[in-house]
């Protein structure tokens, strides 16, 4: 089966899950799957996907896995104890073939946030791998050749010795076996230029550093959990600060667009957080704006970290590093370009939170096509509340 451990997911799922346990254990949420790649007949794979989900829901955290989590500096004892009791429950998943669009599948996850938050990444990994093993034959030799070319470019280009990358590719990987195979190759080829992976299972297996803080869903949920919609970003960031007291200090800037984020990310947050992560829009313009914002709020830009994670390849990493390296600290999370570059075109699939406590929530992305919400009226209201222009 594809998923062999509940650790086979991104670290930020656990960091958010701990905050949910402590602050919002009763929140009820809904996630929805979307395949943005046209012409993909996932319905033909429905039986295989269902079998993989059944297996996923049979897994538990082993004692040594809980011990590993307990040793992470930001994991609190009660959360580690909770993981020892945790399992994913199939009753929260509704998976079916679309009744209106031939070949498409409809997948909803509805239930307590605390008990559904770990579904997203393994479900996406399952759908990816089932699709590719059904429709293609892996060429690992070609994948290795491409990977070695990428690492050689980064490693051997003069002036880029301090340019460092991490693997962020679990959810869109070609397969679990390829992910397991390419990570040691990446580490051995890059040395100190490779700093770790978002995948907790492989971080433990290979003695790598796990990376991650928060995802969009954390700030989205506060659109329903916060005292009022306009204060939802501030409430989410203050909640994070209460949980981690300055640790895991990378904020996500594009849940309702950069302009709205900068209005909320005041001097307190500029000084408290170590940096910010980019995940949509022009990364060069975004970085310029963020560094100017730090300076305007009396936070030394050279001490701050800009984390780039939006559709990166090695060439784009190098351009960004060259542009920002003398002005601040920079970090890069590279996903599909590393874990799904064996020939077949990667799928563009996502699972996003669409409701919390019965209310719609949404991301207003700085990149067209990345927003996802089932309530157009709420999207218009969200734009109005945050002072964003209406969509024509």
Automatic annotation (TrEMBL):
InterPro entries assigned: N/Namide_PRibTrfase (IPR041525), NAPRTase_N (IPR040727), Nic_PRibTrfase (IPR006406), Nic_PRibTrfase-Fam (IPR007229), Nicotinate_pribotase-like_C (IPR036068)
Gene Ontology biological-process entries: NAD+ biosynthetic process via the salvage pathway
Keywords of the record: Glycosyltransferase, Ligase, Phosphoprotein, Pyridine nucleotide biosynthesis, Transferase
TM helices/strands, residue ranges: none
PANTHER family documented for this protein: NICOTINATE PHOSPHORIBOSYLTRANSFERASE (PTHR11098)
Name of the protein: Nicotinate phosphoribosyltransferase
Keyword Disulfide bond applies: no
Stored Gene3D superfamilies: nicotinate phosphoribosyltransferase (3.20.140.10)
Species: Stenotrophomonas acidaminiphila
Top-level EC class: ligase
């Amino acid at each position: 089966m594809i998923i062999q451990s509940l650790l086979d997911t991104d670290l930020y799922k656990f960091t958010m899950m701990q905050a949910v346990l402590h602050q919002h254990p009763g929140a009820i949420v809904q996630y929805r799957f979307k395949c943005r790649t046209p012409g993909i007949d996932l319905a033909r794979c429905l039986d295989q996907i269902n079998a993989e989900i059944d297996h996923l829901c049979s897994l538990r955290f082993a004692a040594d896995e809980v011990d590993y989590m307990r040793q992470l500096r930001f994991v609190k004892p009660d959360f580690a104890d909770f993981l020892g009791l945790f399992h994913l429950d199939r009753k929260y998943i509704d998976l079916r073939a679309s009744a209106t669009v031939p070949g498409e599948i409809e997948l909803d996850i509805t239930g307590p946030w605390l008990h559904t938050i770990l579904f997203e990444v393994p479900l996406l990994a399952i759908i990816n791998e089932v699709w590719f093993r059904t429709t293609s034959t892996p060429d690992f030799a070609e994948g290795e050749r491409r990977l070695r070319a990428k690492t050689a470019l980064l490693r051997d280009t003069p002036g880029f010795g301090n340019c460092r990358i991490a693997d962020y590719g679990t959810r869109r990987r070609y397969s679990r076996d390829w992910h397991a195979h390419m990570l040691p190759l990446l580490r051995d080829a890059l040395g100190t230029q490779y700093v770790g992976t978002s995948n907790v299972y492989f971080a433990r297996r290979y003695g790598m550093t796990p990376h991650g803080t928060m995802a969009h869903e954390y700030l989205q949920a506060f659109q329903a959990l916060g005292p009022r919609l306009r204060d939802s970003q501030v409430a989410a960031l203050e909640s994070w600060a209460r949980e981690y007291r300055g640790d895991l200090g990378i904020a996500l800037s594009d849940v309702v667009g950069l302009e709205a984020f900068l209005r909320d990310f005041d001097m307190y947050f500029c000084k408290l957080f170590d940096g910010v992560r980019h995940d949509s829009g022009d990364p060069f313009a975004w970085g310029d704006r963020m560094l100017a914002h730090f300076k305007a709020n009396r936070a030394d830009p050279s001490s701050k970290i800009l984390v780039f994670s939006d559709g990166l390849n090695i060439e784009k990493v190098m351009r960004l590093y060259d542009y920002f390296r003398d002005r601040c600290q920079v970090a890069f999370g590279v996903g599909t370009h590393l874990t799904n570059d064996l020939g077949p075109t990667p799928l563009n699939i996502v699972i996003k939170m669409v409701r919390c406590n019965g209310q719609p929530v949404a991301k207003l992305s700085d990149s067209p096509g990345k927003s996802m919400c089932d309530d157009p009226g709420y999207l218009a209201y969200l734009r109005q509340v945050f002072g964003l222009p209406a969509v024509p």
